[in-house]
Amino acid sequence: MGGERGLAVRDVVVHYRDDDGTVATAVDGLSLDVAPGEVLALLGPSGSGKSTLLRAIAGLEPLSAGRISWDGADLAGIPVHRRGFGLLFQDGQLFPHRDVAGNVAFGLQMAGVDRAGRAPVVAELLELVGLAGFAHREVVTLSGGERQRVALARSLAPRPRLLLLDEPLSALDRALRERLAGEVRSALVATGTTAVFVTHDHDEAFAVADRIAVMDLGRLLQVAEPADLWHRPASRRVAEFLGYEAFVPGHAPAAAALAGETRDDVVLALGPGSLLRDDDGALTAQVLGSGFRRGVVETVVDVEGVGEVTVVEPSRAYLTGAPLPAPGARLRLRPDPAAIAVVPA
Question: Looking at residues 65-75, what average pLDDT do you find?
Answer without folding.
Answer: 96
